[in-house]
Design brief:
alpha+beta, Aminopeptidase, 7-stranded mixed beta sheet, about 25% helix
Length: about 180
């Protein structure tokens, strides 16, 4: 299936059962591809986190006539864990958008690219992070034009590779 068949909309609470399935599929994919520790033991996208994202109007789904196939969080509220970056620096201290919790059911490819395109309708300054073992996501992030900037730590102290992208001028639109 092509990403051209998909549209992006805000997630709704009624989407939760399918979203939980998608994140379970993504966890299994990560384990099969050598990422054994990201999103384990209830860490990462769980029902409580997804409910908060939905209520905060920052969780989005990729959907077509057959249903929901992927999801991601996009916010312009900043990210507290990005305050301190180790082994590098951010390109800019200007306001930025953050993409988190991107996951697919495996039936579509290129969803990060589509999420970045969606986010760039709001801002040309984006940040994202991933686990050191998530080589698949690291490749996708770099392919989307992000630059590795250093390491950030989650509230529990777990390190994540941090990336940033500043693209050409865009006209902000309401999300």
């Amino acid at each position: 299936m092509s990403t051209q068949d998909l549209f992006i909309r805000r997630a709704r609470l009624t989407d939760l059962p399918r979203l939980l399935e998608i994140y379970d599929i993504a966890r299994a994919f990560m384990r099969r591809t050598g990422n054994l520790h990201q999103w384990e033991n209830g860490e990462g996208p769980n029902e409580e986190q997804l409910r908060r994202d939905i209520r905060g109007n920052c969780l989005y789904v990729f959907e077509n006539e057959t249903g929901i196939h992927a999801s991601f969080m996009f916010s312009m509220a900043g990210e507290p864990t990005y305050t301190v970056i180790l082994g590098g620096s951010w390109m800019s201290d200007a306001p930025y958008g953050v993409i988190h919790r991107i996951a697919s059911d495996g039936t579509v490819h290129g969803i990060l690219k589509m999420a970045v395109h969606f986010a760039e309708k709001t801002t040309n300054h984006l940040r994202i992070d991933t686990h050191r073992d998530n080589v698949v996501m690291q490749h996708a992030i770099l392919k989307c034009g992000f630059e590795e900037r250093g390491v950030i730590n989650l509230p529990d102290g777990s390190p994540r590779l941090a990336y940033e992208r500043i693209s050409g001028v865009v006209v902000p639109v309401e999300v």
